[in-house]
Every structure is written in C-alpha cells, then in structure tokens.
Amino acid sequence: MCKKAGLLVGWDTVARRALVTRADCGSWGCPECAVRMREQWVLRAQIGVRQYIGAGEHVDFITITSHEKLPDFASTERVWSKAWPVLYAALKRRSSKFQFFIVPEKHKDGRMHVHALWTADVTQKWLKDNARKRGLGYQAKRKPVEDAGRAVGYVGKYIGKSIGDDAPPRFRRVRVSQGWPKIPVPVTNTAALKWEYCGTNGALAAIYQMAQAKHYAMIDLETGEYFDDIDLGTIVHEAWAG
C-alpha cells in the first residue's frame, strides 16, 4: 500500500456508504507503486503484441544504442529526444499503421539505450542505417516476436530498471504510441462509483462531515470494516478525530 499519496473516497449512493482507500503516488521511486506500475506495463505490452499477432501483423523486438561518442545518460537522452521524431516519421512512411511500445534503459556504461516492441516491418540494415543517420548508435538489432509471452520476456526486465539521478525531470520510463491497446477496465462493483481524491487533513475532515450529514458509513475498502484514519496513518482535524 502506497504511503506517500492521499486517499480516494468512492461514494456509493445505492448502499449509502463511502469506500476509502489509499491512492497511488505514481512514482517509480515508491517501492509499492513501482511494483504495480511495472506489472501494468508488462500486461499492456503483452495485450498489444497478442492483438497484433492475432491480426496477422508483424511485431519486432528492437534495440537501438546511443552514439558511442556521447559520455552519459543525460547527453544520450537529449540526442534521442531530437532523433526519435525524425526516425518515427521515416518509420511511419514505411508503415502507415506503425505502433510502438518503447522502454529506455540505462546501460551498464551509463548511457541510454532504447528497447522497443513495434509493428514496422523494416530490415535490420534499414534500422542501422537510419538510426545512425539521426545521430544514434551504429549498433541496432531487430528480432521477430513469435508470441506475446516472448514479448514480456524481452521488455519486462527493462521496465522499472533504475536510471539513476541524471535523467531529466518527468522522464518517461515507458512510451507508447496512441494506438497501442490499453488494458481493459474491469467491470467491478466499485467501477461506477464517484471517486474523490482527498489529499490533506482538512479535506479528510470535510469527507467525515459530508458522510455524517448524508448518514453514510465510511468503509475501509481493503478490510471491509469501518474506516479508521489511524490505521492508514492519517491525522485528521481534531474536531473529527474522535
């Protein structure tokens, strides 16, 4: 359970209750959230590959290195951010339905390499020549993906891997094209509830007040028991703390 974020409150108007749970902070630096995010991204990679292969499309696992003269992660990331839009445009011209799932990695030499699953059926020579032309490394590899399970093995070990402290702010650990399939939203009893984020003690005090006014029971979603803010390590306003 994430300890950094606030709470989520789901208002159940049918059962007249407020379901309370911890929100996720969504940071790769949070051990609890990092595990969940990695699992979600791995699942999304698998769902996409399964869908494309099932439709008869070609999927490759790609590795593109950074230019050998660049010294560190920050410099290789800057070059990649300029090179990728141009390389993407070239790939799009070759395959109008091009889709990708990209995972940057901090290599053991400290520089950034990029791994991807994508649907552009280009040769390894084309990839090497065009990556180099855009200022990237001369080493580029292409491996056909035979099934979705293999795809998870290819990218799973890189998702969530540490990138150190020299990455730019808001660096994205995973980048996907707009058309890459999303994880289907499960149909649950709580999916249709109106959820509200509660990030401060004052906000939680207001939630208590609203629940009391509506005669709603406040229930801990994890345990199914009456919500106790002390159990979640949340301190509320003294007026509502007893």
Your description of this structure?
A hairpin with a 5-residue loop joins strand 4 and strand 5. A 5-stranded antiparallel beta sheet has the order 6-3-5-4-7, with helices on both faces. A 4-stranded mixed beta sheet has the order 8-1-2-9, covered by helices on one side. With 242 residues, it is α+β, with helices and mostly antiparallel strands. Helix 1 packs antiparallel against helix 4. The protein is built from 5 helices and 9 strands. Mean pLDDT is 86; it is low at 233-242. The chain has 2 domains: 7-23 and 186-240, no CATH class; 31-167, Alpha-Beta Plaits.
List keywords for this structure.
4-stranded mixed sheet, 242 residues, 5-stranded antiparallel sheet, 5 helices, Alpha-Beta Plaits, 19% strand, 33% helix
Q: Short summary of the structure?
A:
The protein has 242 residues and is of the alpha+beta class. It folds into two domains: 72 residues, no CATH class; 137 residues, Alpha-Beta Plaits, CATH 3.30.70. The chain has five helices and nine strands; from the N terminus they run E-E-H-E-H-E-E-H-E-H-E-E-H-E.
Sketch the major β-sheet: 5 strands, antiparallel
Instruction: Name the strands of the widest sheet in spatial order.
Output: 6-3-5-4-7
Class by helix and strand content? alpha+beta
Please give the CATH class of the largest domain: Alpha Beta
Shape: elongated
End-to-end Cα distance, whole Å, is 25 Å
Give me the CATH fold name of the largest domain.
Answer: Alpha-Beta Plaits
DSSP helix count?
Answer: 5
* Average residue-wise pLDDT: 86
CATH architecture of the largest domain: 2-Layer Sandwich
Number of domains: 2
Q: Would you count the extended β strands for me?
A: 9
Tell me the radius of gyration: 23 Å
Order of helices and strands: EEHEHEEHEHEEHE
Low confidence ranges: 233-242
State the helicity in percent bands.
25-40%
As a percent range, the share of strand residues is 15-25%
